[in-house]
Give the backbone structure.
Amino acid sequence: MKKVILLSMILVLGLAQNGFAVPMSGTISGPSNGLYGTHAWSDASLSWEVEETSPGVWQYDYEFIVDAKEISHVIFEVSEDFEACDGTDPDCDPATDNILAGTTTGWIYDDNYSSTNPGNSNPYMPATIPGLKWNFSGLTTINVTLVTDKEPMWGDFYAVDGKKPGEEVYAYSTGFGLSTDAVIGSGNAMDSEGHAWVLVPDTNGGGGGGQDVPEPSTFLLLGFGLAGAGLLRRRIKN
């Protein structure tokens, strides 16, 4: 009887696992690990952890660290169909809002962030992206949490300092504006040319930069689970 119970538990565990069963984390930094930063931000770093906290709900936790020159704002790319209701757009339907409770307040959504929009405030941003922006003042380390029903894709990150006049200090992921087929998962997506990306929200059921692949432990658990099911069926039959 103990063997039957053990095999049943293994079966349940095996079937319960999926490709996103554990948090996915990564870090990009300068000067050669996926984050391009100018002047005082040449050694800046961005780290993230992404987890499905409940069915269909994803939490993205980011930390951006610089050594000097306070952070003005950061922008994280989102998918083109992202809905973000801030109360100013009468056409935005709260029922389809992709920003959920627990998100760091103060975000600003724009489907057209660029080096010239808004008001030339994103100097040398390499491409135009839809994104969420958070403003900061007087900080060299910032933390942002985004809770959404959007699954992860590989996307872009941009940040700039807030002190002018003086040298323009900014940073961005080295794959900014480019696409990748890298599989969604822990670690960094970086190609042979040094282009790197960040995990950001995409569409439901999607994951823009590739498909999720179960962890090796998932395959083992599934294997044990199926074997257990066969033995259990044989024991019951006998």
